[in-house]
Write a structure and sequence with these properties.
single chain; about 60% helix; mainly alpha; two-stranded antiparallel sheet
Length: about 270
């Protein structure tokens, strides 16, 4: 198999719908624990050994521990959506930021690592929030969405009804965990308020990856936070007020300059 065939096979594999979410869920506190250890040790294999030997995750099942380790690895070490590497993400999660901000960053790595979660969000959650006067989402609604995707994704036809229901419940929990649904028993969807630290971390990362100012501001990543243009403007203004960047706009001309050389420098000097 040549390199082109390998690349094509990887793209097909990554676009398949897989039932990964229900295995460990969002795993927000576990992700923070694992990446904190990674920031300290700098070696994922050492982190894995220590977590297993000392049961740092406080789980009763070795299968659960291994599943969480594998999930975090796939979310942060196999992600190529122009997101910072696991080392930088770990430093950010260890900085002086709120738990909500940490969750908002974990969210973007998770959703970009799972094609089914991402498409369910974009095709079901996003339009429901943006167009419905009563944005309700139930597990039955998620199952109906999965059934409607079978033609484009025949792999779903092999899912049992039980697996579909279980994944649907896991997806609703995912929405609640990251602020896109009100607390149970409510099933009302909502758009969370994105923190300025979350926005600035990702903006600086996009600029550092070589995108122009307009490309970074117009990037698809903001769609996954349901950010409107006026909200981006407000976040840019707030980031400037904190001394993190310079921002000015006149008609179609935009000037945007980070006041730090890199994402890492911003984390170390601005967030502590």
């Amino acid at each position: 198999m040549n390199q082109k065939d390998i690349s094509s096979a990887r793209q097909i594999s990554s676009s398949r719908y897989k039932a990964n979410l229900q295995r460990v869920g969002s795993a927000i506190p576990e992700t923070i624990s694992l990446l904190s250890e990674y920031a300290r040790l700098g070696d994922w294999q050492l982190v894995r050994q220590r977590v297993i030997q000392e049961n740092l995750l406080k789980k009763h099942s070795s299968a659960t521990i291994n599943a969480i380790i594998q999930a975090v690895k796939s979310r942060f070490f196999s992600n190529n959506a122009q997101l910072p590497g696991a080392d930088i993400a770990a430093k950010f999660l260890m900085s002086n930021i709120s738990e909500i901000t940490k969750a908002q960053i974990i969210y973007i790595y998770l959703i970009n690592s799972d094609h089914l979660i991402k498409q369910t969000f974009l095709k079901l959650v996003k339009p429901t929030i943006e167009t419905s006067s009563n944005p309700i989402l139930t597990s039955q609604g998620v199952v109906a969405f999965l059934d409607g995707e079978v033609k484009a994704h025949p792999e779903l036809d092999r899912w049992s009804d039980y697996l579909k229901r279980r994944w649907a419940r896991g997806f609703l929990a995912f929405c609640r965990d990251f602020g896109f649904m009100k607390r149970a028993p409510s099933t009302e969807l909502t758009a969370p308020r994105i923190r300025v630290e979350t926005f600035t971390f990702l903006l600086f990362a996009l600029l550092q990856a070589g995108l122009s100012n307009m490309e970074a501001i117009g990037h698809d990543i903001w769609v996954l936070y349901l950010l409107r243009e006026e909200q981006k403007e407000n976040l840019l203004t707030e980031s400037q007020a904190r001394g993190w960047l310079y921002y000015a706009r006149a008609a179609e001309i935009m000037e945007l300059r980070p006041k730090y050389e890199s994402v890492e420098e911003w984390i170390e000097n601005a967030l502590g």
